[in-house]
Amino acid sequence: MRKIIEEISRPITAVKYSPPSFDCQADTYDQRVGLPEIVCREIVGAVLAIALVQPGDLIVEVGAGTGAIGKWFVQSPVRYVGLDLSQPMLDIFRMHLDSEADNWKLIQADGNQQWPMTDSTVRVIFSSRAIHLLELEHVVNESFRIARSEGAALLLGRVERQKESVKALMQQQMQHRLQQLGFQGRKGEQKQRQLIELCCQRGAKVIDPVVVSRWKVASTPWQSLNSWQQKEGLAGIHLPSDIQQEILNDLQIWAEANFGGLDQRVESEEAYVLQGVYLPPID
Asked: Mean pLDDT throughout 129-146?
């Protein structure tokens, strides 16, 4: 298998720092919002099948994080590049990989800058729960630039929750409070739809949503509050600390009144959904 470095443009310009909102989450990210390992393996299998990936094809993951999904790509007969703004997250990812293998590379890079990939080389661009943090026009331009001339797939993954689940209701209330204060939170599903529409305007074909896996969870309001307490900002927005704390305090009062306590456990179902587009071949 050709070394992955052949498809990476030179020179690579990596950012020199990452926002603390990502770096400080590296050690706890998987415990707070990570996916079950079996789901991560199923995601990789679905991506390879949907994109008709062949051995040696190049896959780029934008927002690779700690590698919960990416490490399973590396164990497949493909070449893999993981991009992420947070070096601490990539450091954790690297711990799960065979340093002697030549089919992977992790790069600290800003997804809102030019991606460090050569034109027309990538078979699959994949991103899980991260694309809403980036500028959509830029993602479209870079995806079309690095996509193989024979065609490629852009696949986006997200977690879908039942509307009446604790996490969904807490998220809804948090977004509502942000809007009341004049902030517009970033909504992942909405931005995915916008990205797909932009790609279709340039000739891409829609890939119908695929439910990769479903699983049961038991969640409490405190888990949502504690997760947000550890972050710098909410819904992808950097907030003054006093405003963020005000929102969280208000959410705590709301949750206690509506769930009967912060430790009240409520069962629900979550699903992982893949959707995206086939990028057209270049004549």
From this structure: 94
pLDDT at 6 over 60: no
What lies within 8 Å, CB to CB, of 109 at 6+ separation is 12, 13, 14, 15, 83, 84, 85, 115, 116
Instruction: Check whether 262 has a pLDDT greater than 90.
Output: yes
**What Cα–Cα distance (Å) separates residue 119 from each residue in 6, 31, 145, 146, 226?**
12, 37, 5, 4, 42
Q: How many residues does the chain have?
A: 283
Instruction: List the end-to-end C-alpha distance of the chain, in Å, as a whole number.
Output: 28
- The pTM of the full predicted model, rounded to 2 decimals, is 0.84
Q: Which amino acid is at 170?
A: M
User: Sign (positive/negative) of CA torsion 97, 90, 221, 191?
Assistant: negative
Question: Exposed e or buried b for every residue in 61-71, given b needs 16+ CB within 10 A?
Answer: bbbbbbbbbbb
Q: Phi and psi dihedrals of 183, rounded to 5?
A: -105, 145
